[in-house]
Amino acid sequence: MHLERATWTEIDAAETDLALLPVGSTEQHGPHAPLGTDTLNAEAVADAAAERYEGTVTVAPAIPVGIAEEHRQFTGTLWTSESTFKAYVRDIVDSLAHHGFDRIVLVNGHGGNTSALREVAGRITRCDEAYAVPFTWFDEVGEHSSRMGHGGPLETALVQHANPGAVREDRLEEAAENGSDRWGDWQGRVNLAFDSAEFTENGVVGDPREASAELGEELLDAAADALIALLKTIADRDLDRPAHR
Amino acid sequence: MHLERATWTEIDAAETDLALLPVGSTEQHGPHAPLGTDTLNAEAVADAAAERYEGTVTVAPAIPVGIAEEHRQFTGTLWTSESTFKAYVRDIVDSLAHHGFDRIVLVNGHGGNTSALREVAGRITRCDEAYAVPFTWFDEVGEHSSRMGHGGPLETALVQHANPGAVREDRLEEAAENGSDRWGDWQGRVNLAFDSAEFTENGVVGDPREASAELGEELLDAAADALIALLKTIADRDLDRPAHR
Amino acid sequence: MHLERATWTEIDAAETDLALLPVGSTEQHGPHAPLGTDTLNAEAVADAAAERYEGTVTVAPAIPVGIAEEHRQFTGTLWTSESTFKAYVRDIVDSLAHHGFDRIVLVNGHGGNTSALREVAGRITRCDEAYAVPFTWFDEVGEHSSRMGHGGPLETALVQHANPGAVREDRLEEAAENGSDRWGDWQGRVNLAFDSAEFTENGVVGDPREASAELGEELLDAAADALIALLKTIADRDLDRPAHR
Amino acid sequence: MHLERATWTEIDAAETDLALLPVGSTEQHGPHAPLGTDTLNAEAVADAAAERYEGTVTVAPAIPVGIAEEHRQFTGTLWTSESTFKAYVRDIVDSLAHHGFDRIVLVNGHGGNTSALREVAGRITRCDEAYAVPFTWFDEVGEHSSRMGHGGPLETALVQHANPGAVREDRLEEAAENGSDRWGDWQGRVNLAFDSAEFTENGVVGDPREASAELGEELLDAAADALIALLKTIADRDLDRPAHR
Amino acid sequence: MHLERATWTEIDAAETDLALLPVGSTEQHGPHAPLGTDTLNAEAVADAAAERYEGTVTVAPAIPVGIAEEHRQFTGTLWTSESTFKAYVRDIVDSLAHHGFDRIVLVNGHGGNTSALREVAGRITRCDEAYAVPFTWFDEVGEHSSRMGHGGPLETALVQHANPGAVREDRLEEAAENGSDRWGDWQGRVNLAFDSAEFTENGVVGDPREASAELGEELLDAAADALIALLKTIADRDLDRPAHR
Amino acid sequence: MHLERATWTEIDAAETDLALLPVGSTEQHGPHAPLGTDTLNAEAVADAAAERYEGTVTVAPAIPVGIAEEHRQFTGTLWTSESTFKAYVRDIVDSLAHHGFDRIVLVNGHGGNTSALREVAGRITRCDEAYAVPFTWFDEVGEHSSRMGHGGPLETALVQHANPGAVREDRLEEAAENGSDRWGDWQGRVNLAFDSAEFTENGVVGDPREASAELGEELLDAAADALIALLKTIADRDLDRPAHR
Questions:
Q1: What residues in chain D have their Cβ under 8 A from chain E's Cβ atoms?
Q2: Residues C100-123, mean pLDDT to the nearest whole number
Q3: Per-domain residue ranges of chain E
Q4: pLDDT band (50, 70, 90) for residue E239
Q5: CA C126, CA C134: separation in Å to the nearest integer?
Q6: Cβ of D60 and C26 within 8 Å?
Q7: For D126, which residue in chain F has the nearest alpha carbon?
Q8: The CATH number fitting domain F3-239, selected from 3.40.50.300, 3.40.50.10310, 3.30.479.30, 3.40.30.10
Q9: C-beta neighbour count of F126 within 10 angstroms
Q10: Chains contacting F (3 or more CB pairs within 8 Å)
Q11: What percent of chain A shows pLDDT beyond 90?
């Protein structure tokens, strides 16, 4: 049940305490994939899981701009500071909880949001009247996860499947050729780079030519299944916090 | 040119310094209109103006949650604090300006956002590398503006036209009957109420039965025309700030 | 009963939960009216209402500096940021409420403060142990309200009446001649200007030659009457917040 | 030249870079002295110095509410947080400096404001386009300073002189009898108390019966002389900050 | 060269722009390892690297309290909020840079600090006059890294080696028996727990009986070598940020 | 019982609600005394008192960086803003109190921290679940206190005694000769200087040649005795806040 399209009376009649908040980003994804890739993909996974879940789940509108300053050298990338991002997420989650939707999954489509979402979910869970956990879809696609990159095979494939026509197929070659094969500029386990422009010419990491709508469907199924399993688990979870030892 | 659907290379190739940032809200709009009414309408106006404008305009993804705590008694309403809202808007505008899109209109669909948008636009214009102004669509529809209400004829009509099927036509009667005929609880010119639940039973103000898709089309044309006129004006505007007297 | 002049024991003996907090500004009012016009006028209205009200009302000292950055090109204008202004107002209101004066009217003399006062009053009323509403005197003078301007007939007249000698009568001509006849630089319903120096040469909007002490007295009576009516209404108001629907 | 009473054109014509910002407090001063004692006294000293100084000095309106939470148990005491207080002072000082009044003395009437004023003056001086120093009048009255107390002989006397009739003379006896003879609840050099109600029954520290208008005049002269000497010194002071060693 | 023990004149005479800032935590490490484990280990690695590095490196005093709320159920654990932690780190780094030590490694001993350090290092590098990167010692010990746990073999071993006597050897058995074998409470790749008390009885994760001073020495050598390699790399690194594409 | 060296189980077994939090600074102390002087001395006093006190006292790790921007012209000086400093102290105190250590003394070694510690202790005591007071060691050494200076006889002596070898004895002559004999640049009771470089060439105020390890021992005894007396007093103190009058 999508908040954007439902009326308040319909939402009020729903019997559930589960909600999904898709969290995206507007940022470069190479010459072939749209700037909205992360938002589109987070929405696709949230929608699929909400639809297939046996029970009602409230789906909030996607947060369209996240923590993406690392892509600021590429035109069209939008970003917000980490503190503003966390405040925005927290306010939205708290208003969901105000209406009784107090078991919330933050369905994330962007690696740069991950640690901030974990932090704000902890703050919400410890301090507010809600339980929240982040779920990043590309971490939940089994072996495929290792091929993540940026604008690479996974993200590209999911857009191809869920938003047909949104990927510029005729630029996949160019995307692959001028991309990079790894995220970061490393000394040991330390990434010396803070901007993606330090290690990729056109913003791509990984080979998007490996993408296909079929792969996209497979990824969507895997991620949606994982999210459904998560919803089931938190639907029954005891939310009491542990006592002081 | 929509950021969400374009690639960074396409946006980079665009020759414009104009951008639109739709700003919506997710909040009750009575039993008949969707919670996303304000976002949908802001997007519709921004899209129409960008399409009809003679020249390129960048359109950012809509901000889906605004200042709507006043509707908190109605299920599904989401809100953020004024300070977080302004920070989120400012960060997005500043990142647009970072890429050269430094003449920005904040296309607003929600009355509760108005004064915050005015304040943040002033802050941006005085302190940052950008010029921004808010534009609230229902202020720009001529005589119709006086019938605004909430979930009333104007908002309902624009949804009917731009998002056919999104209004629950069979609940218009109920919406009108249990609604209120004025916004607020007044003593002189002072509104004593801070929550809409203080003066409307079902969240409606005004009579949505007066809405129609035809009226919606008329409203969209009027608002889009006004926005195009605004874009033309700011495209040529001298952005130097006045000197100290 | 003015806090500035009373002792704590006298205030402690007062039996009331009503308080007035005058809120002014120190900003240019043309070559003829003092920089403190807004503060002087807010104090005049608060004093008149407190004196004429049948019952005791606590009057806090006036806040002398508000949101006036828009006049920054004119020497002597002082301002604070919106966030600091709201924090300062909220702290003062909360300390009034701490002593039991928890029904508070913010008696405002400056248009630039209006939306911030509305916002902070809502925050206080929803979150703190107090009920607060803003009252802007020049909104409450009947038909006269339409002639407001800036340093125009209304403000000038009230200073003439309440603070005889404070207006430079010999500069009224000059004030009128180099002033502007409207506030703002408009495209449709959008004000393109953020600083008053963008549309007025000497800071004046409206014709202060229409002012007189007699008019000032009339305005004071009208505003004080409106404020008294407001005090009566909130003295009896049920302060419970509405329940979730 | 008082900002509140002058027009912007008069202030603009003044040739000075000196400004005084009186900083007061609204807080209990026993059963005999008004809650506005600190503001009234700061204004009296600033006024006297500005008038007697050979040269022009801009005088801003007094800040009426400061850091006085320590008196919160006594009705009518108003306070703001230290961070809000410092932000409010800084914004006002920065707007003075914006017009060229960039050598500013913060003329303080309240002990509780002292360390915050020192801190914010340092911040302004190091980071902004201004030089600011705090001046607390009762530190500058020679041997008398040791008798300060609270609502004691010094403060009471200055009110008696500068605001005749404002002290309730008939309650001096009572004030003295139920007051305390020292500020704080000490263990060695550590004050264990955070609220004045921990060590004074009626809010008084010291014996206000020792006050007189004559003493008040003497104090005013001493403080004004000290402030004038300070103005002379900072008028000529080299404002360059020292270089790194 | 340790700031704590050196004089300013000695530091001033040093010819280097490299600095290390050890970042620790005070938090439970089971019944056998001290609450200061993370600080002690960060210091040990920083000291070893600074000593062995061919060239001068400034070493700041260790930050003793970090982001450790997740251990709040265990007595003695101290923590600060993420925003305060980042502000504290940033201020210290900026003051190092103020003196010319503008290539800084944040030598971290606590997993909970990692993402905040990455974020603040990015902020510093993009906005301030410095380049900073975090280095977490236990990520840089080759294959051993996989055995990290909490109060487990790695941390225990390094304390045994660098701070002989600090580990309670007689409680290793108990530590291991009541500990947990994995960090977190997982559903797929989502950690449902926010407090360590949700999955470990005594605070331990991993088997500290595998620890030894010999292992500790090996870990210290590996981590110090990695840190030295990092110092060499950043000493020569071009600090210009990449241009907009 | 030092948190850094104890395990959580040992701290948990302690029966006390008393805690000491040493608060230092890393800042220039002339050419002869280490940058860590204030931290070392705060630790020495806290340690001595905790050891000699009849009863258990928890000792937190020292805060190593405080409010020292006034020494920024001298290499190696580190500082944090006042607001960050207070937030860091407050979080640490609150986490101590979370475990039941809710009577806390902030053992301070740096004059620049004093007023911020007083303010934050008041905030904690009024708003949080703890009672905190600051104790500055050099205020508690009887007549010696008047000779404080900076890097002068008192601080130097205490380092000599508590950290033998840490003072560069061979530079005492130079330290004294190029030092200053008073702190500040005064006009009446107003210190016109905000940076120590405005009045001391090498950072020293006072004559460190008067220092000796014997004097240091005497100072340590005096300060520790005073701190013990304070601990005894607050151990028994009624922590209820006074009621409204």
A1: 244-245
A2: 98
A3: 3-239
A4: very high
A5: 15
A6: yes
A7: F194
A8: 3.40.50.10310
A9: 13
A10: A, C, D, E
A11: 100
- Provide the pLDDT for residue F64: 98
Give the residue-averaged pLDDT of F236-241: 97
Chain A residues with CB inside 8 Å of E191's CB? 133
Of the pLDDT bands very low, low, confident and very high (cuts 50, 70, 90), residue E12 is very high
Beta strand extents in chain E (DSSP E only): 18-23, 58-59, 103-108, 131-136, 186-187, 190-191
- The SS3 of residue C66 is coil
Residues C150, C29: contact at Cβ < 8 Å? yes
Task: Quote the tokens at residue E38.
Answer: 């993370």
Q: pLDDT (tens digit, 9 = 90+) per residue, E119-129?
A: 999 999 999 99
E84: region left, alpha or beta (phi > 0 left; psi from -120 to 50 alpha): alpha
Over residues B41-74, the pLDDT tens digits come to 999 999 999 999 999 999 999 999 999 999 999 9
Residues 6+ apart with CB under 8 A from A106: A21, A23, A89, A93, A117, A121, A132, A133, A134, A135
The rounded distance, in Å, linking the Cα atoms of E137 and E40 is: 12
Q: Are E147 and E202 in contact (CB under 8 A)?
A: no
Torsion over CA of C40, C43, C44 and C47, rounded to 10 degrees?
A: -160
**pLDDT value for A93:** 98
Q: What pLDDT score was predicted for residue E24?
A: 98
> What is the pLDDT tens value at each position of chain B, 245 positions in all?
999 999 999 999 999 999 999 999 999 999 999 999 999 999 999 999 999 999 999 999 999 999 999 999 999 999 999 999 999 999 999 999 999 999 999 999 999 999 999 999 999 999 999 999 999 999 999 999 999 999 999 999 999 999 999 999 999 999 999 999 999 999 999 999 999 999 999 999 999 999 999 999 999 999 999 999 999 999 999 999 999 99
Cβ count near D127 (within 10 Å): 10
Q: What is the pLDDT of residue F17?
A: 98
Q: Tell me what pLDDT residue A201 has.
A: 97
Q: Do chains A and D touch (3 or more CB pairs under 8 A)?
A: no
Residue of F nearest to D75 (CA): F245
**Considering only CB atoms, which residues of chain A are within 8 Å of chain E?**
69-70, 72-75, 82-83, 115-116, 118-119, 121-122, 125-126, 133-136, 139-140, 187-192, 194-195, 197-198, 203, 226, 229-230, 233-234, 237, 241-245
Confidence at A10, pLDDT banded by 50, 70, 90:
very high
Cα–Cα distance between C46 and C42 in angstroms, integer? Answer: 6
- Taking only the tens place, the pLDDT of each residue in A199-241 is 999 999 999 999 999 999 999 999 999 999 999 999 999 999 9
Whole-angstrom distance, CA of residue C228 vs CA of residue B103: 46
Residue F86 has, within 13 A of its CA and on its CB side, a CA count of 17
Question: Would you tell me how many other CB atoms lie within 10 Å of the CB of residue E236?
Answer: 7
Mean pLDDT of F38-46: 98
Contacts of C69 in chain B (CB under 8 A): 122, 126
Distance from CA of A189 to the nearest CA of B (A): 30
Low-confidence ranges of chain D (pLDDT < 70): none
**β partners of residue F22:** F107
Q: Which residue has the tokens 């542990």?
A: A242
Take residue D124 and report the two structure tokens written for it: 């302004």
- Give the H/E segment covering residue F191: strand F190-191
Which pLDDT band, with edges at 50, 70 and 90, does C69 fall under? very high
- Report the candidate in B134, C127, B68 with the shortest Cα–Cα distance to residue A61: B68
ipTM more than 0.85?
Answer: yes
**D98: nearest CA in chain B?**
B244
How far from chain centre, in Å, is Cα F164? 19
Pull the structure tokens for residue C234. 């909130």
